[in-house]
Amino acid sequence: MPLRGLQYFAAMYRAYVKTNGYDPHRRKVIPLPVPQYIVFYNGEEKCREKWEMKLSDAFILPEGQETSGRSTLLSSLAAPGAPALECTALVLNINYGKNRELMEKCEKLGEYAQFVACIRRHMKGKTTEKEKLEAVNAAVDECIRKGILRDILMKNRAEVVAMSFWEYDAERHLKIEKEDSYNDGFQDGIKSEKKNTLRERKRADAAENRANAAENRADTEKGRADAAESRANTEKNRADTAEQELTRLREELRKLRERLAGAGRKLNWSHRQ
């Protein structure tokens, strides 16, 4: 995650410099906004409410400093061999029941946590796609009844159902793949990588490739969900257009009735004359 954050910040600073017309090769210091990196966690593994992830935790240290030397090396920028940069991610657990103060201050975030918990409860034990889809719809119905994200769920029900179904299914699949990778020696391979043993490094690389393949499959499933969301938006636009046309026709009919009523009153008056 910190490595991904470093890539995000590099891209954002590059865009910031370009947008503001700064020359990165200038002699003067370019003023930059202070970066803050916050990650929301709502996975199923039990975790504490908040923690930090540092890029330096992934740095490969000189042999013999993997354990006792890490804190010493990273504690001082002036230390020999100290890293030239750091990226720290603050991870906040937004699962239901965690970080209550944050949830109270941000009502929608709190309701989102309840919504995710409701979906997981309904999805428990479901195996077929039909059962899972029915479980997601049942969770949405329950949340609407209880006033949880009611306005969003009623307005965008089709999109929410599609996204929740595919994302939850992909999340479960990715978790299983990573557990399989662990059983095949993924974690042992990572530890052996630090010991610079070629045999264990190859095992770790193979396990990592399987995990990457699982992530690619998850991205594919998300693409399907995006396509479903796009189709739902198209249908919604068509419905909105039809509703606007119906409103226009009703208005024209009302005006026509008024003209006919006025003409009728004039005709009655002429007959009495």
Present the secondary structure layout:
Elements: H1 2-19, E1 38-41, E2 50-54, H2 68-75, E3 88-93, H3 100-105, H4 107-123, H5 129-146, H6 150-155, H7 157-183, H8 186-194, H9 198-272
Helix pairs in contact: 4-5, 5-7, 7-9, 8-9
What does this structure look like?
This protein is mainly alpha-helical. It has three domains: 1-54 and 85-105, no CATH class; 108-155; 157-235. Helices cover 67% and strands 5% of the residues. It is built from nine helices and three strands, in the order H-E-E-H-E-H-H-H-H-H-H-H. It has helices spanning 2-19, 68-75, 100-105, 107-123, 129-146, 150-155, 157-183, 186-194, 198-272; strands at 38-41, 50-54, 88-93. Strands 1-3-2 form a three-stranded mixed β-sheet, with no helix packed on it.
- The helix/strand series, from N terminus to C terminus, equals HEEHEHHHHHHH
Domain unit count: 3
**Overall pLDDT:** 79
Give the N-terminus to C-terminus distance in angstroms. 90 Å
Structural class: mainly alpha
Instruction: Name the shape in a single word.
Output: elongated
Count of individual helical segments: 9
As residue ranges, the low-confidence spans are none
In percent terms, what proportion of residues is strand? 5-15%
Main sheet properties = 3 strands, mixed
How are the strands of the largest sheet arranged?
1-3-2
The helix fraction, in percent, is: 55-70%
Q: What is the alpha-carbon Rg in Å? A: 29 Å
- How many beta strands in the DSSP annotation? 3
